[in-house]
Design brief:
By secondary structure, the protein is of the alpha/beta class. It contains eight helices and five strands, in the order ββαααααβαβαβα. It folds into two domains: 48-147; 163-248, Rossmann fold (3-Layer(aba) Sandwich), CATH 3.40.50.150. It has helices at residues 56-69, 73-80, 85-89, 99-108, 118-147, 181-191, 207-215, 226-240, and strands at residues 2-10, 29-36, 161-163, 197-200, 218-221.
């Protein structure tokens, strides 16, 4: 679970503007946390835990040559003028050593270590890389996409500020915090696939239920106040042209 955004509902109007006795700015916004549940990052070959053992022939060769030359990790970094020893010789974020640094290590050992031609080492790496991408990375990426949180950012031009007018008049139905149907429809289209189910634990005036219907999603909702239950039913019937049925 990850908090992705703090959404701001800009209502473009507020009570108390242009009043002389006010001691603060009028509030015309509400906040909403956008939280996603699922696998957010595709990660493989990034830590020792997800290191691919297929790289071992190359990594073990490099370790043997390093030890044969008597180089410590610090000495390798000194020769190569960087801090890449852990990535070339370790299992965390392993990567193939570039030819310039491989040659520098061979020269520093006076030609007694790292004697395998780099072209041969590179060819071995490319063969393993093809196997890694096809047999390991591709299937795991497909699995990752299946657990990734759904988010559609293309059905509308959106940012973290949502501009919808304040709900006024008869559309409020006497409720303290009614939400615009169009805004709830955006929520449905952004975070649920067509036909999927959302849960609204506070039915209110039915904005989420209607927004879900307009977006082709299914909404399960509940409301404790019998008055608002009737409002939800009548409003839903008016929007959809359908007749609500009581399920025993």
């Amino acid at each position: 679970m990850l908090v992705r955004n703090e959404l701001v509902w800009d209502k473009s109007d507020a009570q108390g503007m242009n009043l002389a006795d006010r001691q603060q700015y009028a509030t015309s916004t509400e906040r909403c946390l956008f939280i996603q549940l699922g696998a957010h990052h595709f990660q493989i070959n990034q830590t020792k835990d997800d290191y691919w053992p297929g790289w071992e022939p190359i990594r073990q060769y490099l370790l043997e040559q390093r030890d044969h030359a008597g180089f410590t990790p610090g000495r390798v970094n000194e020769i190569c003028n960087n801090h890449m020893h852990g990535h070339w010789f370790g299992m965390s974020q392993w990567s193939i050593i570039p030819e310039t640094h491989y040659t520098a290590l061979r020269d520093a050992s006076n030609g007694t270590a790292f004697t395998k031609p780099y072209a041969e080492l590179r060819a071995e790496y490319q063969q393993l890389q093809a196997q890694f991408n096809g047999d390991v990375r591709a299937p795991e990426r497909i699995e990752h996409l299946g657990t990734r949180p759904y988010f559609d950012n293309t059905h509308d031009n959106m940012c973290d500020v949502w501009q919808y007018p304040y709900v006024v008049g008869g559309e409020r139905f006497g409720h303290a915090t009614p939400k615009p149907v169009a805004m709830m429809e955006r929520v449905m289209r952004s975070s649920a696939r067509p036909g999927e189910i959302c849960l609204e634990p506070f039915g209110g005036t039915g904005s989420t239920l209607i927004g879900a219907h307009r977006a082709g999603r299914t909404c399960y909702t509940m409301e404790l106040n019998p008055e608002y239950v009737d409002i939800i039913l009548h409003r839903w019937e008016r929007y959809t042209g359908l007749i609500a049925e009581r399920i025993p």
